[in-house]
Design goal:
- By secondary structure, the chain is an alpha/beta fold.
- The protein has one domain: Spore Coat Polysaccharide Biosynthesis Protein SpsA, Chain A, CATH 3.90.550.10.
- The chain is 45% helix and 20% strand.
- It is built from twelve helices and nine strands.
- Strands 1, 2, 3, 4, 5, 6, 7, 8 and 9 form a nine-stranded mixed beta sheet that branches.
- The two termini are 31 Å apart.
Length: 284
């Protein structure tokens, strides 16, 4: 996109803040690639807010400092002294962000160049929508060789229906109205599933959801991702989440019981088996 066209596009849309949280286990080269994908957007964010969640490695600090000098708009940082998890970092980021429209970005993903322009256009044409996401394409080591694609429902009613069994939004793709998130209580400092927890509270608060039927983010997948989604701690959080959904009136009893049996069991399966289940039922 030439500069004149990009300047015209910028003036047609509200300013966008991007929240990107990073912590010491992130890889510096992946963080650099993630930030570069934001700089390559056809609609540039007015602000990239990097949440430093706890102590960072020198390599991560170096990447952030270098990219802050190079970025075509503004990179701001906010440091949390002690790592308290992604939910807390995002909660902090939403409050600290400067604009009414906020987008999510993970420290190891790649946003496709047209992502923000697609989403901002959608929100402008659908002013009743409070949050919009899209599809994810997963890759292992080569960005150009996808290994899976996670498609999600596109209309509100289908999204709400899916939410009763699993998360209906690809978290790394979402762009939302800041006020709608705050009205639902913002992200919470829960241990995992901070996104699913927020979506249900937003649905109960009558927020309107949508997904664009196109790949907006390329995410790192593979067995490592499936390994992170298993184990006792994940199972405990699954139980806590389902109990809360039931108590809030979002899940009828039969959905609650079915989810407990199926979702908790999956957390104890071997990573490879869990991966097959995810690819069969959660992805295209």
């Amino acid at each position: 996109m030439n500069d004149a066209h990009q300047n015209d596009a910028q003036s047609d849309f509200p300013n966008i803040s991007v929240i990107l949280s990073t912590y010491r286990s992130d890889t510096a080269s992946e963080l650099a690639a993630a930030i570069d994908s934001l700089a390559d957007q056809t609609l540039l964010p007015e602000e990239v807010l990097i949440i430093k969640d706890g102590h960072l490695t020198d390599d991560l600090k170096s990447v952030i400092a270098k990219k802050a000098e190079e970025f075509p708009t503004s990179i701001r940082t906010h440091r949390i002294e002690e790592n308290q998890g992604l939910g807390n970092a995002l909660r902090t980021g939403v409050v600290a962000s400067s604009n009414d429209i906020v987008a999510r970005m993970d420290a190891d993903d790649i946003s496709v160049p047209s992502r923000f322009e697609y989403q901002a256009t959608f929100l402008r044409e659908n002013p009743d929508v409070d949050i919009v996401g899209g599809y994810i394409e997963e890759f292992d080591s080569d960005l150009d060789e996808p290994i899976a694609r996670r498609e999600v429902p596109t209309d509100h009613d289908s999204i709400e229906k899916m939410a009763r069994s699993r998360s209906p939004m690809n978290h790394a793709t979402v762009m939302f109205d800041k006020g709608s998130v705050l009205d639902a209580g913002n992200y919470r400092a829960v241990d995992r599933m901070e996104d699913y927890d927020l979506w249900v509270r937003m649905l109960l608060n009558d927020a309107t959801f949508a997904n664009i039927p196109d790949v907006l983010v390329k995410a790192r997948g593979g067995e490592g991702m499936y390994r992170r989604r298993g184990g006792l701690e994940y199972a405990r959080e699954e139980i806590r989440t389902q109990i809360e959904f039931y108590r809030r009136g979002f899940l009828p009893l039969h959905f609650f019981l079915f989810n407990l049996v199926t979702r908790v069991t999956i957390r104890f399966l071997p990573s490879r088996v869990r991966g097959v289940i995810y690819e069969s039922f959660a992805r295209d």
